[in-house]
Fold each of these.
Amino acid sequence: MSRSVLVTGGNRGIGLAVARALASDGDKVAVTYRSSPPPPDLVGLHCDVTSAAEVERAVSEAELRHGPVEVLVANAGITRDKLLMRMSEEDFEATLDANLKGAFRVVKQVAPKMLRARTGRVVFISSSVGLRGEQGQSNYAASKAGLIGFARSLAWEFGKRGITVNVVAPGLTNTDMIAALPEKRIAEMCAQVPLARMATPEEIAAAVRFLASPEASYITGAVIPVDGGAAMGH
C-alpha cells in the first residue's frame, strides 16, 4: 500500500537517498528543503525546521498532496563545529534548535493524526557522534544524543497506538559535506573506522527503509548504528 511519507532535509545526501528508497517502494514522498530544492521527481516543500510556522505549513502541504503523514523521517540538521572554548552560545543554541527542536516541531505536527489512525512510523536520523562524542562537535553530539532520549520517550508514549519510533545513527558518510574535505583528512577519518571506509547514503537509507517497513513492526525505541563499527560499545 502506498503511504504518505515526509522526509525533512530530503533534498540531498542521506535525506535524498532515504526519499528515493521509499519512493522506489511505491510510497508517496514529500521532502523539505531550506536552500536548494530536490530533484523534480520528488515533491519539495520549502521549510526551515527552526520555524514552527514553516513546519506547520509544510506538513499541511504534504497532507494536501498525499494525505496524513504515515511515515516521518526527521533528518534535517546543521553543524557548527568548534572547540568548546571557541564556541559561542549562539553556535550551541542554533545547532540544538535545528537538530533537536526541529525534530520536535515536525513530530508534534504529524503525531495527532498518526495517533488517531493508530498506526505510523517515525525514524530520527542521529549520528555515531551522538553515541561516542567527538572533539569540536560538542553541540552536534549533544543534539544527536538528545534525539535518542526523545525517540525512546516517544516510543513509550506512542506504542499503545501502534506507532513505532526508532533512531538510525550514521557514521562517516560520503555526502557533499565530506567530499569538500581534503583527501588526507578523509583518509585519516576512514582509518578510525573498523571497516576503513565511508558509508554510502544508500546504506543509511537501507536501515531507514527497514525500520519503516512492515517487517519492523515489533521494533521500537531502537538505535541502529550504521557506522562501520565506529561507535562500537557505546
Amino acid sequence: MNNAPRWVSSDEVFALVSMEVAIRAVRHDLLAGLDPARDLARSIIDLDTGQLLYMPSRFGDFVGAKLSTVAPGNPAIGRERIQGIYVLMDAATLGPILLVDGRALTALRTPAVSAAIADDLAPERIDHLVVFGSGTQAAGHVEAMRAIRPIGHVGVVARDPSRASSLVNRLVASGVRADVVGADAVRDAQLIVCATTARTPLFDGALVPDDALVVAVGSHEPDVRELDTELVARSQLVVEDPMVALREAGDLLIPIGEGRVAGDTLISMRDVMTGAAAVDRRRPRVFKSSGMPWEDLVVAAEIYRARS
C-alpha cells in the first residue's frame, strides 16, 4: 500500500479552505484548548541571503512542521521573498500525511489569525480600512477583514506606486471601494493593517483614533518595527503569546526599552477570546503578530480535513 503523503499545491490550498473557514478554525482551536504559550519553539537561522525558519507544533490529532525561507533579495530577480514546505503528521503514528505549499499556507494563515482576533478587537463599524503594503499579506488581510466586517473603503499606502495601483485595481474589481492614500489617512481609520518589510515606523501614531484597531504583521525581529512608540504607549497591546513577543517583536521591545511600555501589560489573544481579558475601547488596540507554529498547524489540519 502506498503511504506517501499527499501534496497540496498553492492553488489547491485556496480552493480547499476559504478565508472564512481558516478564521473559524483558528478561533475554534483556541477556544477548544490550544494554548499558544505551550507551542513548540521555532528556530530562526540567519543565512548569507536571508533566513531559514523551522516551525514545529502539535495539537490534538496532528503534529506538523514548516520549513520556510525569507530571502529579501528574491523579488529583484523575479522569485518569491517567502518560500517553504509544510509537513503534517498524524499524532498517533507520527507518519506524514500531507505536504503543503508553505508560501500559500503562510499567505492564508497569517491574515486568518489577524481577523480571528480582530473580530474581538475591531469596532463594529469599519468605514475606512487603511492597509500599508501592496503584497500578498496586504491583499490577504483586506480579504480577511472583509470576512468579519463590512468595509466601506480601503486606502492603500505603499512605497511602489505601480504596486499600490495594482492592488487598488484588484480590490475595485472584487467590489471594494479603494484608492491610493497617504500615511496621514490613518487619522480617520477604524482599522489599520501594517503588512510591510519596513524597518522603521510607517506613520505618526498620534493620529490614530482612540477606537481604532491596528494590526502589525510585517516583522519578527527585535530591532525592527512598523509602529512608533507614541501609538504603542497609548494602546492596549494584544499578542499571540507574551513570551514570544518579548523575544521577537521590535514594535513592542523598542518602546519597552525606552521605558514607555511595561512588558507585563501584554495580553494574549487567547485571553481576549475566552473573556479572561477585557477589551479596552477607550484607547486604540494593537495586535502585534510574530507568527507562531501553531497557526500553520491549525490551517494545515483544516486543509487535510477538507481533502479527506
Amino acid sequence: MTPSNSHSARRTRPFIIVFILLLGGFALLAGRDRTVAADDTANRRIYTPVIVVPSPPADELLVFDWNGPITIDHHGIPAPEPLPGANGDWTRPINFAQGTIHLRIEVHSQPQPQNMGLQICWWQDDRETCTRAGKIVGRPGAVITWSQDVARLWSLNKTPVDWTRPRSNGIVIRDDDNGVVSDYGDWNWAGHDPADWFPLDVRFTAVVVEAGGTFSGWDHYTP
C-alpha cells in the first residue's frame, strides 16, 4: 500500500466505524420496538379480565346432579352412584338433615314432550324417602325449581332413611296421573309407549342447605 493510500484509509476508517455504530443503533431500536410490542401483547393477555364463579358456601352441599339421557335401559328409574361427599352423615358436623333441599330440572330433549313429574328418592335397607315430584313438560329448554324441608320429605311408612348412614339414590319418573313410568314389577310403563318418553335428556340437580341457612343460588352449580 502506498503512503497516499494509507493516508486515505486512515481518513475513511472513522466514517466506517460511525456507519457501523449507526446501523447497530437502528437494529437495537428495532429490536426494542419488537420487544415492547411483544410485552404489550403479553400484558394484554395477562390483564384480560377473567370471570370466576365463586365457590359455594360451606353450609351447602351438592347432593345430586344427573346430566344426560335417561334411556329405556334405565327402566324409568336411573340410579347413579351417590356423588362423592354427598353420601355421608347429614347430621354433623353440619346439620343438613334439618335443613332445606333445593331442586332444579332442565329438559334438553324428549321424543314426544310429555306432562311428567320427576323426583329424587333415597333407599336404605327397607326405607325409602323421596322429594316431591317436580311437574314439567318435556320441551327443550323447560326449567323448574323448587325447595322442601328435608325433615318433611315423603317417606315410606313414615320412616325416613337414616341420614347418618350411606344410602342409594335415583330418579323416579311419573306421568300426569302420578303413575310410575317404569317396567319394574307390574308398572308396565304406566300404560305408555316408552319410545315416546325415552331417551329423556335432562339435568336434575339438588343442593341441600343446613338448618337456618340461605341458598346461594343456582349460578354456583349450573353455570
